[in-house]
Amino acid sequence: MAYKDLVPVGTVLITCATSFALGTVYANSAYDFHTLWRPSEAGFERSLAHYANWASTPMRVHHILHGVILLGLIGCFIKLYKPSEEVKYFEYGTLGMMMVAIIIYLTNLRIGANSCITGEWGDVDAFTGVNVMAASQFMMVIVLVGILVLQGGLYYAEWYEAKIQREFLQKEAKKANAGVPAAATETSNAASSGVEAKKTKAKKRV
Predict the structure, then answer these.
(1) Global pTM?
(2) Own/partner pairs for 124-131, CB < 8 Å, 24+ apart?
């Protein structure tokens, strides 16, 4: 299997991992909405209970998300193994955005979720801490959507380039095919002229 055959696999891994992460953030949006955008005491209590329950979930459940993240990183490394000059900045940007999302998850979300259980929020109160978690996920949405935009733009650019090349080759093939009959006609005319000239010479000798 050639390297170019693995590049689409990398794109699929990145897209699937990013979409999975967006779905995870979306699942929390119902709780974040009532703490970040329309704050209320009841909304804060529900959000606090939700994240405490999320933090106390068995680690094998969290490892599903971690495995999906790992697949996304593998997809990035596949595409960065031998990137062409035209697309390498798309790939570097994708990896950079994915690392930003991972850092936000490991710092603000994981630590914040554990604080929902222990009650230790450091220099801020619980309400501010939960809002930080909600705001962090909003930032993650922006970053993850940016990854999809980069990969979508890269796919469109490669598709459009392939389309232009295909149309150019088709035009060249038509020109080549049109030139073959013309050349055959010229050869036939030249041969006929030669035959007629020989006949004329033969008549003059007679």
Answers:
(1) 0.78
(2) 126/44, 126/48, 127/35, 127/39, 127/44, 130/35, 130/44, 130/47, 130/48, 130/51, 131/35, 131/36, 131/39
